[in-house]
Amino acid sequence: MLTPTEKIWHNGKFIDWDDARIHVLSHVVSYGSSVFEGIRCYETTSGPAIFRLREHVRRLMDSAHIYRMDSFSFTASELADAMLDLVSVNRMRSCYLRPIVLRGYGDLGVNPLKNPVDVYVACWEWGKYLGEEALSSGADVCISSWTRLAPNTLPTLAKAGANYMNSQLIRMEAIANGYTEGIALDSSGNVSEGSGENIFVIRDGRILTPPIGSSVLPGITRDTVLTLARDLNIPIVESVIPREMLYIADEVFFTGTAAEVTPVRSVDRIPVGKGTRGPITELLQREFFAVVNGTKPDRHGWLTAVESRQTVSL
Ligand code: PPE
């Protein structure tokens, strides 16, 4: 369950956690009209730092733009500053941040354009998404009977609240059948992504991940892993992946802000490789945690320190 923090940022002001309420007839409640982000702030050797803040703010702005919701008056730099301030105000060492842009209260009916657009940012402590054990031993997952959003239905480059109705079906079905997570195929039957994670497959020392055209969210952790693998000279390609590749892979892992880098040890009860975390997954995990925790140099400028910071220019 959520542990409240003191303040939530709302349209430029800090309000108390308990006051961050919306009317039941807000447009978002009936029609799912929201876009949001999930961002982690890590406790690093030089204090709390938000990981890939610029990229998350950019994706939030992109999501709002796709849905014609960018009528709010905040710039990307102001939103980034709000997030850094929120972590300070709540005196968090590490946390998960959830910016949400939503269509608020005013008019009802599918046409959203007369409703105000409200911007909130909350943060709280969020532990390991697929369980502490999955990080070292791997998760048991299944292929979902639900298909990921087809092109021309809901845009997957937008991180929209409504997309997560599909994710919820995938996740609930997986749990009902005794799995930790479900993997959805795209409308052509190729591998897309988990309900809340991108997916990577390793075979013969080469890493594959579905391209943006396979109905995936353009994950920021996905991009992080693509970059880290290239830095380590591990061949990595974006490629359409048939379902059965998951069964014959040497290694499979998930990436996501919440899931970080989590190995998958079985798919549909078929063991992946040796049925444990594989060596390349472990290496990438180690690199990832070294970068986010600041124990390795931040060579890509991915961490924004919360304390003693300069104004963020975006
Ligand atoms: N695909 C989906 C569908 C997804 O929800 C996420 C993040 C990703 C890929 C990975 O994206 P990124 O975080 O930028 O690497 N899912 C977020 C929400 C999870 C939730 O349960 O809420 C997250 O990880 O924060």
List of distinct ligands in this structure: ligand PPE
What fraction, in percent, of the residue positions are helical? 25-40%
Average pLDDT, to the nearest integer? 96
Overall shape: it is globular
Distance between the termini: 34 Å
State the order of secondary-structure elements, H for helix, E for strand: EEHEEEHHEEHEHEEEEHEHEEEHE
Which secondary-structure class do the elements indicate? alpha+beta
Low-pLDDT segments, ≥5 res: none
How many beta strands in the DSSP annotation?
Answer: 17
Spatial extent as radius of gyration = 19 Å
The percent range for strand residues is 25-35%
Main β-sheet, in a few words? 9 strands, mixed
What is the helix tally? 8
What does it look like?
By secondary structure, the chain is of the alpha+beta class. The protein contains eight helices and 17 strands. It has helices spanning 27-31, 53-66, 76-89, 132-137, 163-176, 220-231, 245-248, 279-292, and strands spanning 7-10, 13-16, 34-36, 39-44, 47-51, 95-103, 117-124, 139-147, 181-185, 191-194, 198-203, 206-209, 236-238, 251-256, 260-267, 270-271, 303-305. Strands 8, 9, 10, 11, 12, 13, 14, 15 and 16 form a nine-stranded mixed β-sheet that branches. Strand 15 (260-267) and strand 16 (270-271) form a beta hairpin. The mean pLDDT is 96. The protein binds ligand PPE. Residues 38, 167, 193, 196-198, 217, 219-222, 255-259 line the site of ligand PPE.
What's this model, at a glance?
The protein has helices at residues 27-31, 53-66, 76-89, 132-137, 163-176, 220-231, 245-248, 279-292, and strands at residues 7-10, 13-16, 34-36, 39-44, 47-51, 95-103, 117-124, 139-147, 181-185, 191-194, 198-203, 206-209, 236-238, 251-256, 260-267, 270-271, 303-305. With 314 residues, the protein is an alpha+beta fold. The chain binds ligand PPE.
